[in-house]
Amino acid sequence: MNTIDNFDFNGKRVIVRVDFNVPLNEQMEITDDTRIQAAIPSIKKILQGGGAIILMSHLGRPKTGPEDRFSLKHVMGHLSDLLGVQVQFAKDCIGEEARQKSADLKSGEVLLLENLRFYKEETKGDVDFAEKLAGLADVYINDAFGTAHRAHASTAIIAQFFPVAKMFGYIMENEIKNIKKVVQEGKKPVTAVLGGAKVSGKIEIINHLIDKVDNIIIGGGMMFTFIKALGGDVGSSLVEEDLIDTAKAAMQKAEELNVCFHIPTDAVIADKFDNEANKKFCNAHEIPEGWMGLDIGPETGQVFKDLIEHSSTILWNGPMGVFEMSAFEAGTHEVAETIAHATANGAFSLIGGGDSVAAINKYKLKDQVSYVSTGGGAMLEFIEGKVLPGVAAIEG
Ligand code: AMP
């Protein structure tokens, strides 16, 4: 299979699907350029190899067509600065201007196309639209993991027009490699630390991971659905009544497969959802009426700490409590520190999913874990065992 490292880009026009969906302020300035920064290594590699690059991306959620606030022209200046190359811009992603500017590109030059989602054909996965984009280049690279779970024209459909010259960029390569390190090749003992608000967002992952891991640690708001399923009293904690049977089934499956399913024994409870609320520690299965659990307790924190310290592979998705409030962040903070410590002792750790990434950043531990996935929904679907259209289109 072609890879960005073994392909000869010399003299080739390369169309790269990047994720430049960055936040902009009222002045149309970029407020967080992480996604652009992440794409730079692939772009530089192609330029160094003598290729010319056509970049395509989406930005925001335009409704019915072009909208100035979603124009990728706002990204062009910063991108030029980061690359040290004056990036050209086409006011449309298909059509005569895009065709002409692509055809005129020389080695080492970069053209940025206007927002793909100004056309509804993009998200519909329209084949004609994909063919028009494909017609601009000789080689296709997908480096937008965040949209890899969508069968859009630029993320999946376009690949059929490049039967040979298609490959992943570095972001895609890294995401796939690191997620596989956990779900397919994880060195035992493998521990999945799962938290966050709701069981509904996580149950597919739990079910998919049960036969792949040794320990499943449950925290966050979703622990109370499991505790209720075990017959506990959870007061006014977050519970998804309709998922109690599903939670029971997951715990039963874990037992049959000899997987340790760890439900918190104690919790930090509060009399309202507020940083200034009255709070106390309590048995997580005996929460009084009028109180709600907003974090794991110290006894549970110690058990989780020991489990994580003794794991060789760790996957963390979702906070242990309402970590945005200082009163309820201790459990999440401790898990983050422990994962960093286990990593320093040789464990492989993968952090993924919006809020655990936010937590690892909050505690400035990003560089002390093995890999932080940027994928969000794509990462969750990959872990759930689903085939991602953007991955399948390249891998075949
Ligand atoms: P998710 O997006 O499902 O991973 O959920 C993340 C959110 O879950 C965060 O904003 C947390 O504040 C919230 N969360 C964590 N623990 C609890 C809890 N015990 N009760 C309510 N919300 C929680």
Briefly characterize the structure.
With 396 residues, the protein is of the alpha/beta class. The protein has helices at residues 34-48, 73-83, 96-104, 120-124, 127-134, 170-183, 203-209, 223-229, 244-256, 298-309, 330-344, 354-362, 377-383, 389-395; strands spanning 13-17, 52-56, 88-90, 110-113, 139-142, 166-168, 190-194, 215-218, 233-234, 260-262, 266-270, 279-283, 286-287, 292-296, 313-317, 348-351, 371-372. The protein folds into two domains: 13-168, Phosphoglycerate kinase, N-terminal domain (Rossmann fold, 3-Layer(aba) Sandwich), CATH 3.40.50; 176-383, Phosphoglycerate kinase, N-terminal domain (Rossmann fold), CATH 3.40.50.1260.
Please name the CATH architecture of the largest domain: 3-Layer(aba) Sandwich
User: What's the pLDDT, averaged over the residues?
Assistant: 95
Number of strand segments: 17
CATH topology call of the largest domain? Rossmann fold
Instruction: Output the radius of gyration.
Output: 23 Å
Key terms:
single chain; 396 residues; alpha/beta; Rossmann fold; 6-stranded parallel sheet; binds adenosine monophosphate
Notes on the structure:
The chain is of the alpha/beta class. It has 2 domains: 13-168, 3-Layer(aba) Sandwich (Rossmann fold), CATH 3.40.50.1260; 176-383, Phosphoglycerate kinase, N-terminal domain (Rossmann fold, 3-Layer(aba) Sandwich), CATH 3.40.50. The protein is built from 14 helices and 17 strands. The protein has helices spanning 34-48, 73-83, 96-104, 120-124, 127-134, 170-183, 203-209, 223-229, 244-256, 298-309, 330-344, 354-362, 377-383, 389-395; strands spanning 13-17, 52-56, 88-90, 110-113, 139-142, 166-168, 190-194, 215-218, 233-234, 260-262, 266-270, 279-283, 286-287, 292-296, 313-317, 348-351, 371-372. The chain has a 6-stranded parallel β-sheet with strand order 3-4-2-1-5-6, with helices on both faces. A 6-stranded parallel β-sheet has the order 10-8-7-15-16-17, sandwiched between helices. Strands 12-11-14 form a 3-stranded antiparallel β-sheet. Strand 7, helix 7 and strand 8 (215-218) form a beta-alpha-beta unit. The longest helix is centred in the N-terminal third of the chain and has 15 residues, at 34-48. The protein is elongated, with a radius of gyration of 23 Å. The model has no long low-confidence stretch (mean pLDDT 95). The structure holds adenosine monophosphate. Adenosine monophosphate binds next to strand 14 and helix 12.
